[in-house]
Write a structure and sequence with these properties.
By secondary structure, the protein is mainly α. The protein is built from five helices and no strands. The longest helix has 59 residues, at 36-94. The radius of gyration is 56 Å and the shape is rod-shaped.
Length: 143
């Protein structure tokens, strides 16, 4: 009967007092961020590193291109040397005296031993110079 004596409100107060809520304060720590100057320093370091790596890559590709050019020039030089050697051999074959004599006879020329002279010797026979040239040379020497 005690419930009727206090009424409904008393019961509610009693129930509230029994369930005591404990409120505890939690402290939230906010970690300090990196200062702006330090962030800029990190950004500068990273950007310089990226630029440096980029320059190394570009230089590496240039060196590779130069090596390729060197190899192609060496190959071209070897081919020109081989061609030069074959042309020297051909010159040797074509400048053979017997071949020249045979070719001259095939074209209808005759061999005149008095008219033959070689380059590099100081004496030239008069018979090797045609008459029209010999007359013009003597006329130019007289004045």
């Amino acid at each position: 009967m005690s419930y009727y004596y206090r009424g409904n409100l008393a019961v509610e107060l009693e129930q509230q007092s029994r369930s005591v809520k404990k409120t505890t304060k939690r402290t939230i720590r906010i970690k300090p961020t990196i200062p702006t100057g330090e962030k800029l320093l990190y950004l500068l370091f990273i950007s310089l590193t990226v630029i440096g790596l980029g320059l190394v890559g570009v230089r590496y590709s240039q060196i590779s291109q130069y090596n390729y050019d060197i190899q192609s020039v060496k190959k071209e030089n070897r081919l020109v040397t081989e061609k030069n050697t074959s042309l020297k051999l051909q010159i040797e074959q074509l400048s053979n005296g017997n071949r020249i004599l045979q070719e001259a006879e095939r074209q209808g020329m005759t061999y005149n031993a008095d008219a033959v002279h070689t380059i590099g010797q100081g004496k030239v026979k008069a018979s090797s110079i045609p008459q029209t040239q010999a007359a013009s040379q003597t006329q130019t020497k007289q004045p």
